[in-house]
Amino acid sequence: MFEGAAVVRLEDGGGRCAGRVEVKHEGQWGTVCDDSWDMTDAAVVCKQLGCGSALKAPKYGHFGPGSGPIWMDEVGCRGTESALSDCTHNGWGQHNCGHSEDAGVTCSEFTGFRLVNGSTACEGRVEIHVLGTWGSLCASHWDLLDAHVLCRHLDCGFAESIPRGGPFGRGTGPVWRDSFHCDGTEAHLGQCPVTALGASPCSHENNAAVICSAGSASLRLVGGGSRCDGRVEIFQHGTWGRVLDDQWDMQEASVVCRQLRCGEAETAYNPPKPQRGTGPVGLRGVRCAGHEANLTLCNTSLPESVLAAGIAEDVGVVCWGSWQVRLVNGPGRCAGRVEIYYQGSWGTICDDSWDLPDATVVCHQLGCGGAVKAVGSAHFGEGSGQIWLDAVNCSGAEAALWDCPAGSWGQHDCGHKEDAGVDCSEFMALRLENSDGCSGRLQVLYNGTWGSVCSNSMTLKTVSLACKELGCGDRGILETRLPYGRASGPGWLDRVECGERNSSFWQCPSAPWDPQSCDDLRDEAHITCTGGVVWLSFA
Prior knowledge:
Blueprint: E1 8-15, E2 18-25, E3 28-32, H1 39-49, E4 54-56, E5 70-72, E6 104-107, E7 110-117, E8 123-130, E9 133-137, H2 144-153, E10 159-161, E11 175-176, E12 179-180, E13 194-195, E14 209-212, E15 219-223, E16 229-236, E17 239-245, H3 250-259, E18 265-269, E19 281-284, H4 304-309, E20 313-314, E21 316-319, E22 324-332, E23 335-342, E24 345-349, H5 356-365, E25 371-375, E26 387-389, E27 421-424, E28 429-433, E29 439-446, E30 449-453, H6 460-469, E31 476-479, E32 491-493, E33 526-529
């Protein structure tokens, strides 16, 4: 007899698109054992729930142990199934597990991306599908790295430009205020860190847009740390193929970098054996003068005698456009040890003469606001590998750290105990002031200063996500029997309204950042995280 797909849900993850996997079988909810649990299984759950792509497939009761039966074990999905119950498993209720092994899933809340109102499918206004609703994306923090990720995800090559001023018309419906913070290597926008907290209101006059390279981008670089370095592949006859050559040099590399809008060529190389490709060959043997606009305009019809004379190998390039900066080993995206990606590898910065103008350039470059602190002496731990720059001397107005005066690349008299770091103004953190464990006044760190979160419009969902961020479980009480009087210090945030689509406190919409958000003690949010049933107490 045909049996319909078993219903699934995600529990204790802060939203309907993250949590412990539970399946309803024979009228009873139960869990899934994490034996053999992987991203393919997680992807089927996300698809079944309409929650976009799978981001994580945590094991070992990551979202807490469930109760009741353990319905499935040794799940083996192919990824094409429409429901988890369509995947192979040991049989209903057949397992050797405890609830400490309950499987979990974290999905992207974003279920679709598209470009509208362009002359082709590869340009237009950015629209995002969020839990059943299409809306335009605000352009406030939209940048080329975000746009590159979207273009690649839509099979549209790379981003050529992100025009402002609404060239693709006004959207209808909501304007999502989410800010994506991509490094350019993600497979889709849903994999990028996202924030919305404190974002200013956005209208349809400020919609994000992109013009992608589309079919003209018949090249790509794979296996590198950015879109502008790696092994060269060419798209021909509907498939990507390797490029092989026995005399690959800077002339050919220059053409590749120019075609990909990646600046000048820095290095031409043959990848070592572990990095070589294994797929079909798209191009064997190429000779460029170096000025061509496209690799296919070079001489690709070399005589057999020339091809037979050498050993053709995979080829790679490193372009100037591969240079990147990042912050690592810090408490968040906008604080940490400064590292630069140069010549295909990550390295650190020496703290000699490192100061606030230098840190300001890094923070601006990363979309992290201004600099609050410039720290040295490996404040965020010692790095490894190269120390790329020393004696950096920025004015603070440069667009990128490598535009600043400094010593030559790789030339220094430092050790990693002198690695430089920064704290940027948009580094955010939560704490409970006067905390007795997981209870106290809720405060947020912004612009280097701790301030209150106001309780206006605060829902149980908001409290639960704050507790989750604080590592205090995912349930809590909003206390309202509070003293009269004026608050001390800034009141940074008001009207934090977390909803069903939010799986992190930082993704929740709120009023814009304002140090005068609440000036009365009764307006400040005091919470007690319980980890159990949520209660809301009223005065």
